[in-house]
Design brief:
The complex is a heterodimer of chains A (308) and B (519). Chain A has 308 residues and is an all-alpha fold. Chain A contains 13 helices and no strands. In chain A, α5 crosses α8 and α6 packs across α8. Chain A is flat, with a radius of gyration of 24 Å. With 519 residues, chain B is α+β, with helices and mostly antiparallel strands. Chain B is built from 17 helices and 23 strands. In chain B, the strands form six sheets. In chain B, strands 11-12-13-2-14-21-15 form a seven-stranded mixed β-sheet, sandwiched between helices. A five-stranded antiparallel β-sheet of chain B has the order 1-6-7-9-8, with helices on one face. In chain B, β4 and β5 form a beta hairpin. In chain B, α9 packs antiparallel against α11 and α16 packs antiparallel against α17. The longest helix of chain B has 14 residues. Classes of the chains: A mainly alpha (308), B alpha+beta (519). At the A-B interface, α2, α7 and α12 of A face α7, α13 and α15 of B.
Chain lengths: 308, 519
């Protein structure tokens, strides 16, 4: 177990380093000179050159890469060209909001998935089975930009119950979270339902029924535990999607999270900020995946983490 | 000339021509006239009681930079902030009349000299008194010609201090719109001008609002309760940058934003018939949407003319802008003072355009274009322009940029859509974009003949000014220094909870101190 964790942590470090190098190189190969973009329109060539010097983009690539990693080791991801502020500070402002949005969306979708997916698996031809299929189909066919706009139209502009955008406390989370939940729900629902249907046919479930164990206990304790393994994989992928910033939702709701920040950074050719966001989200994603692997073993003791 | 639609719009709308009349009455044409005003400062009438409430603007653009020198920026937000944080020597009221501000009275002694008396009770927000030395430092530096806003002044303009309350502003050349310049130039602490690094810390002025912060895309100002003209009525003013157009209009309709600036025709249709909102506009609009510049291939006049023949401006205005933006046949907006439709009309003719391209660049030509969401419908307009140019043999590479990045980099591309917003009520301001250091910086445009024409309109008497302005505009038009797309009228949608909101015919918000927020 310890060896597994150590190996995976080392793997994670290599992955993050490779991602950082790849992003660094791709950004510098892409079009647009940050100095020309950021310098005032009235800037003379010597002023633009000064900007290049300040940004460090006048130095050889390898030197830029070296100082970037040297800074990153000390928690300094550089200065944003666009915001003229430390990258770490900008990420520290935006990331908690995205994490909140991700957590609320994930919890909401899991609550629906577990209850509805289990009921639908137990009684496929019932109302719950129909509702599960309908919700999955709706979620899959309604893109976030549409569902988000509809939610704003109805709840914000029509009923005036919730804010249409921005971030001013918990109420600002509700509509973006519903929109994001609708986008991740279908896969979770389908995976849990089909996995649960398989597990419910297992012999140990039949035995538990024969022993007179309460159906609710059989479903939500014995069956759910085993049926949730594939769901765990889906959750891992979903977390990556959510942490990358649910860009469309954040833009529609003017939600100042990491996705909106990333989009601004990309369109502003803000190299340090793009690099910083990529590294932070990649690191978080790798850590989450490691935790999910560990959770596999916790849920299913048959899974051995030590590799032969 | 007022548009018929003005009738149902805010009374604050003011036509360019009537504004000019007002400006003329204020002393522009009467060189010997003495404009000693006994009118109380406008803001003194507005202030009463403790400021309350928050007024939030929803803007499509951020400040140019986190660098708060008002003479270094040209953006809408830059000027919104500057107009509230800083004072000017002369101010405008809602009717376009010049009123006292830091200067309590003034006399236009000659086409080059204005004598002014300055008040002694104005203080900067850090408590230091505003003096004649601060006024001198603020104006003299524009005469050096190194700042973005030097174009509003004349090279060498300077202030002579006659006494602590008496000064003379002197231009080396005839400067017919000198009072307009003094109604625009912001007065800053001399200490900040001497140490520009202070501009990175925030804006420090003597105006009715104090700069508080710039964070999370919001610029926040707070009422200056010690203001010489009395405290404003609204406690907090926020200029919020929301890049996405849908999110911006939703924020207005949902009540998170009180005033939406630079609205598109689609935005206007969203509030049509909704009695919760009123619509106002900056009129004279003073905005032109232009395609420019003369980097690389566009140095060739034939190519610039090909663009003019290719792009169907009327069709773009009718379809994408739903007819809200008139088409001008000049380098000036159609309701600018002295506007005159010019020849040739450059009527759309794709065959002629393609032939001109072939003539100029037989092997084809590629243009780099940047786009953003700064101008209403910009991406859609740019798509039409790019596809039209493709059809006449021009390859267009389009790069999408964030608004802030777009605003600071447009002249590094060959072509893009932009707006020249007049911060001044006179055609001199728009014409000034094509001359001197400004012309070179903005358009990479340097033309000695045009420089002469520009100087001539500045030095012209009221009797000869119209012809002089037309001659300068004609030169720009024939040479297609910029491709004039349309007058981009700046429509603002205002929530009715904001009471007594008026706009002076300027880009800034100098009349906000009179407004209040309904409980």
């Amino acid at each position: 177990m310890t060896m597994f964790v150590v190996r995976r942590v080392l793997q994670a470090i290599v992955i993050v380093l490779l991602i950082a190098v790849a992003v660094f190189i791709v950004l510098r190969l892409s079009a647009g000179d940050p100095a020309k973009i950021r310098a005032p329109v009235f800037a003379r060539p010597d002023v633009i050159e000064q900007y290049r010097h300040d940004f460090g983009t006048d130095r050889p690539l390898i030197e830029q890469l070296g100082s970037f990693f040297a800074g990153a080791l000390h928690g300094d991801l550089g200065q944003s060209f666009r915001f003229q502020a430390p990258v770490m500070g900008l990420i520290a402002d935006a990331l908690p909001r995205t994490l909140m949005l991700a957590a609320v969306s994930l919890l909401l979708s899991l609550a629906i998935t577990i209850v509805l997916g289990s009921l639908a698996a137990l009684q496929p031809r019932s109302f719950w089975g129909w509702l599960s299929s309908a919700l999955a189909a709706f979620g899959q066919s309604a893109p976030v930009f549409w569902s988000g706009a509809m939610l704003v139209l109805f709840f914000s502009l029509g009923l005036h119950w919730l804010p249409a955008g921005g971030f001013n406390g918990p109420s600002s989370l509700v509509l973006p979270a519903i929109a994001v939940t609708l986008s991740i729900l279908p896969t979770q629902l389908r995976v849990l339902r089909s996995s649960m249907e398989g597990v419910l046919k297992e012999e140990y479930i039949r035995t538990a029924n024969a022993f007179g164990v309460r159906p609710a206990r059989i479903t939500f304790v014995y069956a759910l535990k085993n049926a949730s393994l594939p769901l765990l994989t889906v959750i891992g992928v979903d977390i990556g999607y959510l942490l990358g910033g649910v860009i469309v939702a954040e833009v529609i709701f003017d939600f100042p999270g990491i996705g909106e920040l990333a989009l601004t950074a990309l369109n502003a050719r803000d190299y340090p900020l793009i690099q910083g966001i990529t590294i932070v989200t990649a690191t978080t994603f790798v850590i989450v995946n490691l935790l999910i692997d560990l959770l596999y073993a916790r849920i299913d003791p048959r899974i051995r983490l030590e590799q032969p | 000339m007022r548009h018929p639609s003005d009738e149902h719009e805010s009374a604050s709308s003011l036509s360019r021509r009537s504004f000019l009349k007002a400006a003329t009455a204020a002393g522009l044409s009467g060189m010997a006239a003495t404009a000693i005003s006994t009118v109380l400062p406008l803001r003194a009438m507005a202030a009463d009681g403790t400021p309350t409430g928050t007024l939030t603007f929803g803007n499509a653009e951020p400040p140019t930079a986190n660098y708060w020198d008002p003479a270094a920026g040209f953006g809408l937000v830059d000027e919104q902030v500057a107009s509230l944080v800083h004072d000017t020597l002369i101010s405008w009221d809602e009717n376009g009349k010049m009123v006292p501000s830091i200067a309590t009275e003034w006399t236009l002694k000659s086409p080059t000299t204005v004598a002014l008396t300055i008040r002694t009770d104005a203080k900067f927000h850090d408590g230091t008194p505003l003096t004649a030395e601060d006024v001198k430092a603020s104006i003299d530096r524009l005469g050096d010609g190194k700042l973005a806003q030097s174009m509003v002044a004349t090279p060498g303009i300077s202030v002579n201090i006659l006494s602590p309350t008496s000064i003379e502003v002197v231009s080396p050349q005839a400067f017919g719109v000198i009072l307009n310049a003094l109604a625009f130039i912001k007065i800053l602490p001399k200490a900040n001008i001497a140490n520009p690094d202070n501009f990175k810390k925030g804006a420090l002025g003597s105006g009715p609002y104090k700069f508080v912060s710039y964070a999370d895309n919001n610029v926040t100002l707070e009422a200056n309760t010690d203001y010489w003209g009395g405290a404003p009525k609204i406690k907090t003013v926020v200029f919020s940058y929301i890049e996405d157009n849908q999110a911006r209009i939703n924020a207005l309709l949902g009540g998170q934003v009180d005033i939406l600036s630079r609205c598109s025709a689609e935005d206007l249709s969203r509030v049509e018939g909704n009695d919760q909102f009123t619509t106002t506009k900056v009129s004279p609009p003073s905005q032109i949407v232009a395609l420019y510049q003369h980097n690389g291939p566009l140095k060739d006049l034939k190519l610039r003319q090909a663009l003019a023949y290719a792009i169907d401006r009327q069709a773009i205005s009718d379809s994408l802008m739903k007819g809200k933006n008139p088409i001008a046949y000049s380098s000036l907006p159609s309701d600018a003072p002295y506007y005159k439709p010019l020849e040739p009309k450059f009527a759309p003719d794709l065959d002629k355009a393609a032939a001109l391209v072939k003539e100029a660049y037989p092997d084809g030509v590629t243009l780099r274009m940047s786009t953003s969401t700064l101008v209403p419908n910009q991406i859609e307009i740019d798509q039409v322009i790019a596809s039209t140019l493709q059809s006449i043999g021009i390859t267009v590479n389009v790069e999408r940029l964030e608004v802030g990045a777009f605003r600071t980099s447009y002249n590094t591309y060959d072509i893009n859509l932009n707006t020249l917003a007049s911060f001044n009520n006179d055609p001199d301001f728009i014409l000034g974009f094509y001359t001197g250091g400004t012309g070179e910086a903005v358009f990479h445009f340097k033309d000695e003949k045009y420089d002469e024409l520009y100087k001539a309109q500045r030095a012209a008497t009221p009797d000869t000014r119209a012809d002089a302005v037309t001659a300068a505009a004609q030169y720009l038009w024939e040479n297609q220094a910029a491709l004039y797309l349309s007058d981009e009228v700046w429509y603002f949608i205002v929530n009715k909870r904001v009471q007594n909101y008026k706009r002076a015919p300027l880009v800034g918000e100098n009349l906000v101190p009179q407004a209040s927020i309904a409980a």
